[in-house]
Amino acid sequence: MASYRIRQYRDQDYDTVRTLFARGILEHTPAGYRHVLRSAWAQLGLLVLFAAVRAAAGYWVLGLGAVALVLSATWLVVRSFSTSYVRQALSTDLRDISASYLRAPDSCFWVAEAGGAVVGMVAVAPPQDPAERGVALELKRMSVSKDYRGRGISKALCGEVLRFARARGYGAVVLSTSMVQLAAQRLYEGQGFRKVGASSPSLLGSLLCFQIFHYRCDLPGRTAAP
Fold first, then answer.
1. What are the distances in angstroms from CA 79 to CA 16, 33, 75, 190, 223?
2. How far apart are CA 143 and CA 158, in angstroms?
3. Can you give the residue ranges of the N-acetyltransferase domain (predicted)?
């Protein structure tokens, strides 16, 4: 028997949900940082920097120091991307969750509750892509507390979104996730989602080969999109 239950969001969940979302996003910062360091552009840049400083100063220790400073600055930049995304979400749809998801058409917000505490969340709303509006709904804001992963909560939350979309006659559910969120990708693919595209969030993201993956799940009984 499941040790959790899925229910609709309530106003008293507000602070917990916002904290859960922020922590879930920020925990991917190290993976994003490692991805940047694995980039050929980043590795070449660090090598050139080390060689240039060593040649100019004549000391390899100064070259290493310069590299260390750049690595520290890179960490701060990567983390700023995550914190900026969190601030943007907390100041828009997650600022008034009831208005954004419970009083808006074809939208909803669920939480997973275990031991009387909120440990997971997911939302659904019309997609931002105008081409998908009226055809699909978008799964958003999925997050599960670290201590409660591996219990099927993410799968159950995803299932709520799929059932909600199907009950309203939509033919698909779409979502976006970053390339470093490997566990999320496995979850969605296991639920029937297929990757249909990828994009870079910025010019810097393009240079570092950082992509946002776009997924789509065509619902049974509806015509699959090309």
1. 22, 8, 6, 29, 41
2. 11
3. 68-220
Maximum Cα–Cα distance for the chain, whole Å?
A: 70
Residue pointed to by tokens 């969940």: 13
pLDDT value for 205: 62
Residue 224 is predicted with a pLDDT of 42
Nearest to 32 by CA among 69, 86, 83, 78: 78
193 close to 216: Cβ distance less than 8 angstroms? yes
Which residues in the chain land under pLDDT 50?
A: 1, 223-226
Strand partners, 7: 111
What pLDDT is stored for residue 161 in this prediction? Answer: 97
Tell me, what's the pLDDT at 221? 65
- 31: nearest Cα among 178, 166, 135: 178
65 SS3 class: helix
Residue type, 129: D
Q: Which two tokens stand for residue 219?
A: 């619902």
Residues of the chain by 3-state class (helix, strand, coil), percent to 5: 50, 20, 25
List the 194-199 sheet strands across, edge first.
5-8, 108-114, 117-125, 136-144, 172-178, 212-218, 194-199
pTM: 0.86
- Say what the pLDDT of residue 2 is: 67
- Size of the chain in residues: 226
Q: Is 72 left (phi over 0), alpha (psi -120 to 50) or beta?
A: alpha
